[in-house]
TrEMBL record:
This is TetR family transcriptional regulator. It holds the Pfam family TetR_N. The lineage of its organism: Bacteria, Bacillati, Actinomycetota, Actinomycetes, Kitasatosporales. Residues 19-79 form the HTH tetR-type domain. Keywords: DNA-binding. PANTHER family: HTH-TYPE TRANSCRIPTIONAL REGULATOR RUTR, HTH-TYPE TRANSCRIPTIONAL REPRESSOR KSTR. InterPro entries: Homeodomain-like_sf, HTH-type_TetR-like_transc_reg, HTH_TetR, KstR_C.
Length: 206
């Protein structure tokens, strides 16, 4: 068995060769999903496109759902790197987070079939995919906290971040299903992001 191939656990980091193989797999997954959506991502085709054996692919990602959720986490990491280089401006934390999430949304909008495949995988994920889903959630939280740029967040602000994350995910689903316009998505995200300013510590509060 390819030791350490079953994910990026802190106790079993991937070797350079394994990381390169994982990179090819994720790129192939994104490419196939971008062309044909959720149904186009077939494990055998991913293996062929990434030039790995099918058995090796399953050691890295036990199912298509694991693979697509990991693909979303990878896409969010790429967005995060881009946003760190040029973060959206804004006078308040709410404005900065709104700008950041709308940029992320528009990046997904440019590849709607890929976005739909990843979001469907998140929706279908069961407990076996919890580690990958948690990574997506942590990355989204990090993106929001970086955009807030407020130092150490308070418990109330962390609660607001969770509400914002849920709102963004729900907005993606409603937009992808054709039940919400981009304008409505922005309104919903702006409304949720106002919670950040409302939960800011009062002057003189700890």
């Amino acid at each position: 068995m390819d030791a350490g191939a079953t994910g990026a656990s802190p106790t079993s980091p991937l070797t350079e060769r394994q990381e390169a193989r994982r990179r090819r797999i994720l790129d192939a997954s994104a490419r196939l999903a971008g062309r044909g959506g959720f149904d186009a991502v077939q494990m055998r085709e991913v293996a062929e496109s990434s030039q790995v054996a099918l058995g090796t692919l399953y050691r890295y990602f036990p199912s298509k759902i694991h693979l697509l959720v990991a693909t979303m986490q990878d896409q969010l990491e790429r967005m995060h790197r881009t946003l760190r280089k040029k973060p959206p401006a804004g006078d308040t934390a709410a404005e900065r987070v709104t700008g950041t999430l709308m940029l992320a949304f528009r990046a997904l909008q440019r590849e709607p079939q890929l976005a739909d495949a990843m979001v469907r995988a998140l929706t279908f994920a069961d407990r076996s995919v919890s580690p990958e889903v948690d990574q997506v959630s942590r990355r989204t939280t990090m993106i929001i906290l970086d955009a807030m740029d407020l130092g150490e967040p308070t418990p109330d602000q962390l609660a607001a971040v969770r509400v914002i994350e849920h709102t963004w995910h729900s907005a993606l689903i409603t937009w992808l299903s054709g039940r919400a316009s981009i304008a409505q998505v922005r309104i919903d995200i702006e409304t949720a992001c106002r919670l950040i300013d409302r939960t800011a510590p009062k002057d003189g509060a700890p």
